[in-house]
Design goal:
Number of helices: 12
Distance between the termini: 53 Å
Largest sheet: none
Helix content: over 70%
Shape: globular
Radius of gyration: 20 Å
Number of domains: 1
Structural class: mainly alpha
Order of helices and strands: HHHHHHHHHHHH
Length: about 250
Amino acid sequence: MIGLALLAGGYLGAVAWRRPRLKAPEPLSVGKTIWFLAGLGVIFVAFLSPLDALGDDYLFSAHMLQHFLIAFVAPPMLLLGTPAWLVRPLADMPVVGRALRLLTQPIVAFASFNLIFMAWHVPALYEATLEHEGIHILEHLLFMATGVLNWWPILSPLPEMPRLPYPAQLVYLFFEGIPATILGALIVFAPGVLFPTYAAAERVANLSPHDDQLLAGLLMWIPCDAMYLLALSLVFRAWFNREAAAQAAA
């Protein structure tokens, strides 16, 4: 709650006090503010609703839904709500700017997010997050941070660290769907229950441990692929509209 309050307060404070002091900053639409606050709302639901307790102690499927929200849904919403002038001071810092330019390179962003996300679902590491709160917090922070990096080549707010061209965005989004498909399939077709915590958990829903695991795999597989497919469709539409407008102007 404190972290979300600080993020929301810092964002609204920057909009109210910092932006008017900058020289001719680009206008901030109401839509951007809504996107950012909605992204924080998704994080609120993931961590401060019954979903968190269900995922930690009872249902693998609830935990996977939480991971989907914080790693795949909230990051693009936060980026859509972030104006360039808000992050430009970070990019102008010599060390931080170089690090950002490296981490937001498409290959680096793709690899860092997908490798980290898949690694944390290795049974030994996953069980460690359930047993140690500090490790669990680190896992979730990495999911959110690398999730923002993952969407940066598509939704970058900074011209200095530009988005990929539309054709490259389509290729990037196509390959983005592959790791989620692989992870979902590994969970769905696993011969037994992967995580002892959920195998031994009290049943709070009409789901056996194996059915719960099957649902978790499907939650990783289908919604993630659907989200990338939607993004791919929107990028293709934007590319088509731009080309059509250019031809009409010519």
